[in-house]
């Protein structure tokens, strides 16, 4: 967010990019219902971000998801930077969403880390070889994904309520 505050032109460029790739159009369509919007947020956060961008790359190349998350966090921070009064007011209720989702992503990142360590150093999980270490690492990912999924569900419901109901009250 600091980079976004220092370079407000990047915020505008990120928002223009979201308009061009159809992300804002999808979000506007999903906002027709709180539950549809919650489900859309959950699918994007659990499926798109956690599974596709964090865990699958780490299942192919150890720790790759951690690097991808660092890029995503930078890009998202720039996009959410409170560069004007409306963005600053919006971030008041949205900061709880950021906190909840970030906690879930930390659990997923821990799973990606444990998978990489189990794969590269199988003895750290009591495995005899890399294959067995990889499988034990996947098991650890599964266990860490359960509380992460619970956080993402809570975060998705709160984010939909916050964006559709709390933010309009703040801005009126």
Helix content: over 70%
Shape descriptor: elongated
Helix/strand/pairing category: mainly alpha
The total of helices stands at 7
Total beta-strand segments: 0
How far apart lie the N and C ends?
25 Å
Radius of gyration from the CA trace? 18 Å
Please mark out the parts with pLDDT under 50 across 5 or more consecutive residues, or reply none: none
- Count of the separate structural domains: 1
Overall average pLDDT: 91
Largest sheet: none
Our estimate of the beta-strand percent is under 5%
| Strand and helix order | HHHHHHH
How would you describe this protein?
The structure is a single chain. Helix 4 (34-60) packs antiparallel against helix 7 and helix 5 packs antiparallel against helix 6 (85-120). The model has no long low-confidence stretch (mean pLDDT 91). It is built from seven helices and no strands. 25% of the residues are buried. With 172 residues, the chain is mainly alpha-helical. The chain has one domain (2-171). It has helices at 2-6, 8-20, 23-30, 34-60, 64-80, 85-120, 130-171.
């Amino acid at each position: 967010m600091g980079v976004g505050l220092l370079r407000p032109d990047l915020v505008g460029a990120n928002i223009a990019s979201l308009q061009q790739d159809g992300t804002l159009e999808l979000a506007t369509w999903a906002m027709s219902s709180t539950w549809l919007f919650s489900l859309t947020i959950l699918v994007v956060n659990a499926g798109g971000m956690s599974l596709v961008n964090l865990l699958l790359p780490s299942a192919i190349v150890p720790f790759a998801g951690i690097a991808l998350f660092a890029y995503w966090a930078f890009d998202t921070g720039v996009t959410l930077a409170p560069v004007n009064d409306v963005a600053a007011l919006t971030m008041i209720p949205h900061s709880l969403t950021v906190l909840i989702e970030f906690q879930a992503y930390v659990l997923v990142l821990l799973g990606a880390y444990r998978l990489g360590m189990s794969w590269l150093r199988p003895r750290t999980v009591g495995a005899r070889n890399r294959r067995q270490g990889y499988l034990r690492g996947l098991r650890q990912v599964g266990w860490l994904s359960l509380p992460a999924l619970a956080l993402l569900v809570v975060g998705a419901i709160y984010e939909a309520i916050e964006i559709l109901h709390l933010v309009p009250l703040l801005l009126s």
